[in-house]
């Protein structure tokens, strides 16, 4: 398993899940894949299908409408899969903390989460740092 | 004798060589694309990491679908691509061929597309079905032009359908690309290769930003690794086939001629990558009308010129 973990660190395909966000974090994620940051250097690639994903990047407060779909997406991903919550919304709700439509206090009440990257929105550098720290925990 | 054929199929021009070299050429593709976009690009072993990682991931089957077809389609496609690469590779490196191998190659490359269509339509996913329909239309449009392109060297070599006979003809009478019909057929051939490889102007069936990798949307883990590996192997033998048909192959007489052969191959690959990076994806109806109205008549002109010996 140790050898496999060493390889999977170098080839991370991310899938972008927007769970009722305000679109700020999504724009920052799209910034990540522009030539300025070029995460393909680390083997990170944005994929369109959840069947190809290794990491789910979840943004936004999880509303009641989207919560069952998030669970379904997590179940559809092939299994060594990691979940990263992007933005303060996934941690505590930020501006929408007292919203009537919020399912659960944070994202990890709904699906297992491996790392949170707080910020409103987090900078692309912070996201790269967070993902690198998550991969550092793999032994 | 049997061991020799097994060696051809599994080690040298076949499985091991074609996969390793294909992944390296796949890296060249990603690196050149990155340099065109002023990026750094992935490290050298990136495709090896990707394939190895996919081998270890979970394979998910779709509920209420015919999984036998879903499971067998990537293996059929991989096998057909592997045999094609062995056939082209033995002609390229050892000057060996079975009788009528060009017809066999045309059939095997069609089997790859048919397996892709079957695998994609077995899932029942709506994007997958759209992708399968597009792949079928693309196959119907590029196949005629591709067969006409292959006819040109066959006619010029005196109606011989062996790769080695075409090579012998070119050694005696100069390269086919030097003639008027040869250069027209070569240009149409590169466009057909672009469609066969599902590269940028013709990646209509995959269309990552539109129908989310279309035909491959439901594939995961090992099965996806088979599809990716088949695609990498196509990087190896399709440009090689063009080099054999039009550009006189490679000769191992001296160091200079080996370098010249490798450069011919690399030139076609880089040309295809540059076409990929400078053209946006076109719609499927535009692709059909392009192939049926412009590419196929142009290839037909080349065939007629070849019959008159120009």
Task: Give descriptors for this structure.
heterodimer; A: alpha/beta; Rossmann fold; five-stranded parallel beta sheet; B: 310 residues; mainly alpha; 12 helices; 74% helix
Provide structural commentary:
The complex is a heterodimer of chains A (139) and B (310). In chain A, strand 3, helix 3 and strand 4 form a beta-alpha-beta unit. Chain A is built from five helices and five strands, in the order αβαββαβαβα. Chain A is an alpha/beta fold and 139 residues long. Chain A is globular. With 310 residues, chain B is mainly alpha-helical. Chain B has one domain. In chain B, helix 2 packs across helix 10. The longest helix of chain B has 31 residues. The mean pLDDT of chain B is 87. At the A-B interface, helix 1 of A face helix 3 of B.
Global morphology of chain B:
globular
How would you spell out the order of helices and strands of chain A? Answer: HEHEEHEHEH
> N- to C-terminal separation of chain B?
42 Å
Runs of chain A with pLDDT <50, length 5+?
A: none
Number of strands of chain A: 5
Task: Describe the SSE topology.
The complex is a heterodimer of chains A (139) and B (310).
Chain A: H1 2-8, E1 13-18, H2 24-32, E2 45-46, E3 55-59, H3 67-76, E4 82-86, H4 88-91, E5 115-117, H5 124-136
Parallel strand pairs in A: 1-2, 1-3, 3-4, 4-5
Helix pairs in contact in A: 2-5
Chain B: H1 2-10, H2 15-36, H3 46-55, H4 67-94, H5 101-121, H6 126-156, H7 163-173, H8 180-196, H9 208-211, H10 221-247, H11 255-278, H12 284-307
Helix pairs in contact in B: 2-10, 2-11, 3-10, 4-5, 4-10, 5-6, 6-8, 6-12, 7-10, 8-10, 8-11, 8-12, 10-11
Concise overview:
The complex is a heterodimer of chains A (139) and B (310). Chain A has 139 residues and is α/β, with parallel strands linked by helices.
């Amino acid at each position: 398993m140790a050898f496999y973990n060493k390889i999977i660190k170098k080839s991370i395909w991310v899938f972008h899940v927007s769970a009722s966000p305000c679109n700020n974090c999504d724009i920052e994620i799209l910034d990540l894949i522009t030539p300025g940051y070029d995460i393909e250097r680390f083997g990170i690639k944005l994929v369109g299908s959840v069947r190809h994903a290794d990491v789910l990047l979840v943004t936004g407060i999880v509303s009641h409408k989207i919560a069952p779909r998030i669970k379904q997406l997590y179940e559809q991903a092939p299994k060594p899969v990691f979940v990263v919550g992007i933005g303060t919304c996934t941690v505590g709700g930020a501006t929408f903390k007292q919203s009537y439509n919020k399912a659960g206090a944070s994202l990890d009440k709904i699906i297992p989460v491996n790392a949170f990257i707080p910020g409103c929105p987090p900078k692309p550098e912070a996201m790269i740092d967070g993902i690198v720290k998550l991969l550092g925990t793999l032994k | 004798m049997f061991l020799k054929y097994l060696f051809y199929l599994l080690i040298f021009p076949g499985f091991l060589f074609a996969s390793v070299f294909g992944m390296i050429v796949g890296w060249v593709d990603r690196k050149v694309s990155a340099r065109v976009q002023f990026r750094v690009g992935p490290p050298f072993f990136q495709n090896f990491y990707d394939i190895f990682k996919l081998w270890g991931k979970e394979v998910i089957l779709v509920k209420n679908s015919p999984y036998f077809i879903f499971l067998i389609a990537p293996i059929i496609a991989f096998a057909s691509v592997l045999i094609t690469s062995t056939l082209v590779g033995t002609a390229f490196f050892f000057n060996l061929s079975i009788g009528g191998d060009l017809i066999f190659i045309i059939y095997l490359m069609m089997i790859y597309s048919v397996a892709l269509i079957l695998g994609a339509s077995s899932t029942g996913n709506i994007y997958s079905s759209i992708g399968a329909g597009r792949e079928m239309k693309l196959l119907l449009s590029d196949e005629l032009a591709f067969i006409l392109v292959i006819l040109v060297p066959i006619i010029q070599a005196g109606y011989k359908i062996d790769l080695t006979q075409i090579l012998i003809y070119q050694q005696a009478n100069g390269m086919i690309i030097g003639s008027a019909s040869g250069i027209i057929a070569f240009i149409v051939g590169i466009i057909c290769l672009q469609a066969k490889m599902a590269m940028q102007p013709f990646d209509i069936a995959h269309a990552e930003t539109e129908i989310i990798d279309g035909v491959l949307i439901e594939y995961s883990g090992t099965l996806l690794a088979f599809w990716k590996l088949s695609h990498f192997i196509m990087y190896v033998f399709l440009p090689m086939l063009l080099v054999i048909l039009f550009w006189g192959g490679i000769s191992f007489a001296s160091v200079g001629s080996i370098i010249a052969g490798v450069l011919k191959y690399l030139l076609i690959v880089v040309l295809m990558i540059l076409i990929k990076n400078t053209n946006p994806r076109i719609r499927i109806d535009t692709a059909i009308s392009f192939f049926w109205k412009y590419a196929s008549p142009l290839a037909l002109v080349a065939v007629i010129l070849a019959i008159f010996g120009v």
